[in-house]
Every structure is written in C-alpha cells, then in structure tokens.
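Fresh eyes needed here. I'd like your take on this protein's tokenised backbone:
***
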Amino acid sequence: MAQTPTKQFMQFWKVANVMVGVAVLLFTFSVFPARTKADFEEGRQAYNKGDYVIAAEEFRNLADPGIVRESDNSKSVIEGIWDGFIGFLPWAWEKISGSARSRNGHAPAQLYLGMMYALGRGVPQDYAEAFKWFSLAAEQGNAQAQYALGSMYYEGRGVPQVYSEAFKWFSLAAEQGDAAAQNSLASMYIDGKAVPQDYAEALKWVRMAAEQGDADAQNNLARMYALGRNVPQDYAEALKWVRMAAEQGHAAAQNSLGMMYFNGQGVAKDYVQAHMWYNLAAAQGHDAAKNSRGIAEKLMSRNQIEGAQRLATEWMEKQFKKSTGER
C-alpha cells in the first residue's frame, strides 16, 4: 500500500532530524574547541612577545564565564542527541552547543589573566583581580592556579594570610604533580605551619619536586642532607642536589655549593671552585656570597682569583648560549 503524503513527510522529518542532530554534534565538537584553542594560542603568543594588552584581551574573552572552551558536559550532549533524534531541533542545538560552553570559563586563560594582574602586565597590578581569576581556574582543577592561590594565601597577598587555606591549595596542586606546590608543601611540613612539624612528610614531597627538576626543591633537599634532617647526614648527597640547583642558576644553591668547596664538605677543598660559585651567586645580588667571596680571596693568589673569575665567565657564557639555542 502506498504511503500517504503525511506519512512520507513524517518519515522524512525523522531522517532529517537524525542527520541534523549528527551534524550539530560534529560541528560543535570540531569548530568550538578548535576556535577556543586557536584564540588561546593567539593570546599565549602575544604574551610571549610582550604584547600584554593584546594578550589580556584575548585571555579575557576566553576567561569570562560562559565562553566556549574545549571541555564539555556529557549529559547535555546525550540529551541533545536524543532531542535531535525525536525532533526537537532547537532544544538539541541549545543543549549540545551549550555543552561546549563553560559556565566557569577557560581555566588556562584564567590562569594567565591572574598572572597578568599579579604582575601588572598589560593591566594595572591588582591582587584582588589576580585572586579572582586564580580562584576560577583553581576551582576547575588547574594545578598551576591552585599553586598560585596557595601562594597568595601563604603570603597574605590580596587576601588575609591563612596558612590552612595555603596548605589546602598546595596539597591539591601537589597531588597533581605540580613541583612548585610539592616544594611549598614540604616547607609547610618543615616549619609546622597549618600542620604538625613532620620532616618525613617534608622529605617525601621535597624529593618528588626535586626529582622533577625544581631548583628550589633541589636546594632544600640538599639542606636536609647537609643538616641531617630526617635523613642521615650525607654531604655527598647534599653536594649532588645542590649542584643540580646551582647549575640551574639558583643563587642560594650557588652560594651553598661555594661553601661546600670552601669547607671541603662532600668534595675536596677548592678555593677556586668556591670563588667561582660565590661569584655567580654574588652576581645575582646574594649578599652572603659577596662576603664569602671576599673571605676566600684573602686565601687565594692573584692567579687563582683570575682563574676563578674566568671559570665564572665561561659558565655564564655557556648558560647564555643554552638559553638562546646557540652552540
């Protein structure tokens, strides 16, 4: 029996709904995320070039709540597909496209915007605004923003100093593997701030950060071995970690390495090497290194001092070439 025009139309309508529903879904997941990623990359490139005003504008467009971002709400997607299949195309579009929008904004853009307000780059320095953007990103699970938020609470910058809040956000970021947060968490365990003093916990977290290459953590781990804090005193192990940090340009570590060479701790006494590392730290404004360098010079010949200065110059040239990609 031939189908009536009405039945033919209804069949066509159902098929059209399915096709449009699928098309809407594909469009949503291909165009919206790609656009968000491209916009963020434009902002990041502008930031790296020093075009902070342009970067701030790009990041703000993405950071404000309700702006498209890459993540989605799977429940809305499923509901949207179903609405498309059963014929409610306007509802389908609203739910599926809405799934590609974040009520919370784009977390990486919020992180950058927070940084820019904290540093006063492209915008007036405003710790309250920095706190706002860091908070939005941190609540979405961004580890770097969680660390930044913890730092603001720890230092009392833009917010009252609250160590318990600092500990909370450092912990969340540290659990995600953020090295700076792990090192900060270790420091709180060492100092007994917001938690009972616990060198074992401190050692656990500082080692995790040091093994990721965090120079602050490497220097702190070296101090724990040099002082024998919850580990057997081991100058060789201290030397290993402090050298890693010093080679990264960490001024305090360079001063400590100079001291180890000067005193012969974990290494043969060497005034030339001591002077070299003191000199490098002093060049970064480390006052103790300046004094120690003066003390070392009184025990050195002119040739030794010149040799140490030459070594320091060579080290700085090597670091410069490394940073610029020269060979």
